[in-house]
Amino acid sequence: MISPVKVWRRQKTIRDLLGKKGSVVSWTRIFTPPPQFRHIAPYWTVLVELTNKQRICAQLVDFDFHNEITKGMKVVVTLRKLRESVSDDVIPYTIACRPV
Amino acid sequence: MKSQVIGYYSTPFGELWNKSLFDLTTEAVMGVLKNSDLEKNQIDAVFFGNMLGGILENNLHAGAKIADLLDISMPIFRVEGACASGGMAFHLAHSYITSGKGKTVLVVGAEKMTDVNTDQIIQGLMSAASGEEQECGLTFPGLYALMAREYLRKYSYTREHLASVSVKNHTHAALNPLAQFKNQITIENVLTSSSVADPLGVLDCSPVSDGASAVVITSDSNLMKKHKGITILATEIATDSISLLRRDSLTEIRATQEAASKAFSTAHIAPQDISIAEVHDCFSIAELLAMEDLGFWKKGEAGKQALQFESQREKGMLTVNTSGGLKAAGHPVGATGVKQIGEVYLQLTHQAGARQIKCDNTTFGLTHNVGGSGGTAVVSLFGV
Amino acid sequence: MKSGIMSLGYYVPRQRVRVADIAEVWGKRSHEIERSLGVTEKAVATAAEDSLTMAYESSNMALAHIQTKIDMLLFGTESPPYAVNPASTILGELLGIGNQYLAYDTQFACKAATGALISALGMVDSGSISGALVVASDKATGKPHDALEYTAASGSVSVVVGVTDCIYQVEAWESYSSDTPDFWRREGIKYPSHGGRFTGKPSYFKHIQGSVLTLLSKTGYKASDFDHVVFHMPNGKFPVQIAKQLGFSNEQLYHSLVVKELGNSYTASALMGLVAVSDVVLPGKRILLASYGSGAGSDAFVLRATKHITNRRPQFNTVFKNKIYIEYPEYLKSMRII
After folding, report:
1. Within this chain, do residues B185 and B214 fall inside the same structural domain, yes or no?
2. Contact A95 B150 (CB under 8 A)
3. For residue A38, what are the domain limits?
4. Rounded to 5 degrees, what are φ and ψ at C31?
5. B259 shares a domain with B312
6. Residue C302 has pLDDT above 80, yes or no
7. How far apart are CA B97 and CA B103, in angstroms?
8. Considering CB atoms only, which of B119, B142, B147 is closest to A45?
9. pLDDT-above-90 percentage for chain B
């Protein structure tokens, strides 16, 4: 079971990151996911440097993957539900990045 | 205080369905005692390197478990530093001796990974990464892929440069009877292998393996006289942030640089003095970074030199990963760091069989063991 | 009424499924389905989205350029993330509105949010609160091979209610309610059920007539007093028919009829039509909006655009350009059906 307390402690960090802007530093596409990410695999993960120089990692969503991801591509932090929760778990909403 | 590695034993690495974690551990301990011609009561302590016992099989308190299985009661310590668990166990064993707590210590590293599904392994291994890296679905291939992409971009290399590392290590492993993979592969094989995390394919990645390796180290002058051993010139550890997000660079592992720098300084030798090295190629990119971080090759040049197979046996002054590395020999996480030391021991004592390189009493060896994406690095130096 | 709509936000996912592709799976003739439903494609959220993540996107937009304290947050949906646990406070936490607010989730099929909107307007009018955020959000599931599969879609609209610099004044409202079991879903059952043709005349049409005719009678307005009319859009046919029955023209309906290319986003449907109209309505002009919620009821509003609408156009057109098509298997994966 995902700890509801851990999800609760994480809220402030997620809230503070939402809406922040940054640019892509590196990226990869993951084909061999951990079990709780299987339902959305394969997915792109990006390493982003925010405008305040802080670095984050997140999945890249809402991107037309016929295009190429490029270093320096501008993104903004938004909210998604990535980690699969078992039907009676608390839902661990988290950050994702989408292109601006 | 002089100390030496005087004995080594390793199980084969691979999918060892019939053996449990502690079957493997027991085999390695009994094996190294036999190879060192020692009785249990001549050992003062045991250091056990293992990463996943707790996560995958709810098995901790390994010290007591080993005491139970081997019917011994000396101090036994479980050491964990992700994939550097083995190297870290060795480092602590060495400190135990140099601090005078004991004279003869056994170091065993072991891992059992094939009892669970691959995706559970992937998740278990991610315990060596930060919470935020886990939260977005990153995996270790993914973390090293992020580094690989930047490395290839920065120095204008291609996947071929990465692939050459795997090809070389398979060539070496073909001569290692204990290696998980003894087949030769080509660059084309690596490039067309199934995608794992772009730009890394299956053949860019070390496998899931079971295995255990053990060494005996001693400062006892009688034992050192009796045995053909190798001298431990230095063993150093450095730590950097667990998270890739907080590293200064994606194309350097600072922990490796620091550990290496400290080790070379302690031993009063330099990278160019090393003839044989076992470096941490958990992924093909990792060996390229290691060759630069350890000071063997210039920054940015590893790709070029790797593609020319310059660190292959009988090519040049430095031979890297004659065991087959993590890629081809296999990577039972906790065992790797110890196996690396064992391979250098075999080479420097002329026991490396078909994969022997030219050694004499001026030959120096190096082992390099990394935890996670570079959060821990252990560098040890050996001489005859 | 002093209270009005200060701001609107919206979110439509990029993914589109063609009605033709769904029809082909079930061996139907796609042009016949498109013709009878008046819908050609629908918007579908990804597997990583739900009503809460979409609500974050639309409310973030609604709050972007205004300054107001949110004293009340109401979340209307038929696809809540939890059966028991307020999505409204998850959203409140993520928006960073502090802890001094009233929150609750509402359900009344497709009119969950418009009912909440009426409550919010009343609270602001009475001076109990200064500002409210009312959110409509649905990632609607249609049972495979059922008629609703062609139209059940995803979307979210957020409405900020207050008194300052409103883009719409709410002149009047009316609500019509009854017990009419045309569409429902039992606890623990994955897909909703419906009464087929029973969802038409005794349901959709009766209740919208019930709210609108009374509203017109009370206010003294005629159909011709409105520049635009917006109805809940379960498909592309019903709104056209009800418009005609109530004496509205195709021109009045035209700008709000987004269902053809977006599908039915349930609680967000009628409000999405309002967002679309907000791009073209002139200051001082009136809009009639009537929602419909199965079970059943209808909320009707007389809205009047203010001068502030001219520099707060939502640019809803982008939604029709910013899209990618997905095939049926990807649609099932997005909806977590496989």
Report:
1. no
2. no
3. 21-71+96-100
4. -65, -30
5. yes
6. yes
7. 5
8. B142
9. 99
Q: Are residues C12 and C101 in the same domain?
A: yes
User: Does A32 reside within a domain?
Assistant: yes
A91, part of any domain: no
The verdict on whether C232 is a catalytic residue reads: yes
Residue of A nearest to C14 (CA): A62
Identify the active-site residue in B170, B172, B331, B368.
B331
Residues in chain B closer than 8 A to A85 (CB atoms): none
Both tokens of C84, joined, read 């028991």
Taking a C-beta distance cutoff of 8 angstroms, is the pair C29, C14 a contact?
no
Q: What is the nearest CA distance from B203 to chain A, expressed in angstroms?
A: 14
Spell out the SS3 assignment of A58-97: EEECCCCCCCCCCCCCEEEEEEEECCCCCCCCCCCEEEEE
Indicate yes or no: CB of A32 within 8 angstroms of CB of B196. yes
Chains with 3+ CB–CB pairs under 8 A to A are: B, C
CA distance B265 to B381: 11
Task: Give the total number of structural domains in chain A.
Answer: 1
Interface contact flag, B122 A32, Cβ < 8 Å? yes
Distance (Å, whole) CA C236 – CA C5: 27
Domain containing B162: what range?
138-206+231-383
| Contact list, A94 vs chain B (CB under 8 Å) | 135-136
Tens place of pLDDT per residue across chain B (384 aa):
999 999 999 999 999 999 999 999 999 999 999 999 999 999 999 999 999 999 999 999 999 999 999 999 999 999 999 999 999 999 999 999 999 999 999 999 999 999 999 999 999 999 999 999 999 999 999 999 999 999 999 999 999 999 999 999 999 999 999 999 999 999 999 999 999 999 999 999 999 999 999 999 999 999 999 999 999 999 999 999 999 999 999 999 999 999 999 999 999 999 999 999 999 999 999 999 999 999 999 999 999 999 999 999 999 999 999 999 999 999 999 999 999 999 999 999 999 999 999 999 999 999 999 999 999 999 999 999
Phi-psi region for residue C223, left (φ > 0), alpha (ψ -120 to 50) or beta? alpha
Q: Does A85 touch chain B (CB under 8 A)?
A: no
In chain B, residues with a C-beta closer than 8 Å to the C-beta of A38 are 119
Active-site residue (options: C110, C149, C166, C207): C110
Q: Is residue A25 part of a domain?
A: yes
How far apart CA C231 and CA C235 sit, in angstroms, is 11
Provide φ and ψ at B314, rounded to 5°.
Answer: 65, 25
Residue ranges with strand state E in chain B: 4-10, 45-49, 76-79, 104-111, 195-197, 200-201, 211-218, 230-239, 274-278, 319-320, 364-371, 376-383
Tell if the CB–CB gap between C50 and A81 is shorter than 8 Å. yes
How many domains, chain B? Answer: 2
Closest CA to A76 of A28, A23, A27: A23
Examine residue A41 and state whether it is found in any structural domain, yes or no: yes
* From C194, C207, C232, C255, active-site residue: C232
Which tokens sit at B380?
Answer: 């040890």
- Residue C59's domain is classified under what CATH number? 3.40.47.10
Question: Is B78 found in the same domain as B217?
Answer: yes
Chain A contacts to C (CB-CB under 8 A): 11, 14-15, 18-19, 39-40, 59, 61-62, 64, 78-82, 91, 93, 96
User: What is this structure's pTM?
Assistant: 0.93
Residues B213 and B248 in one domain: no
Is residue B237 in some structural domain? yes
- Domain residues for the domain of C319 are 4-167+314-334
- A26 to B198: CB separation less than 8 angstroms, yes or no: no
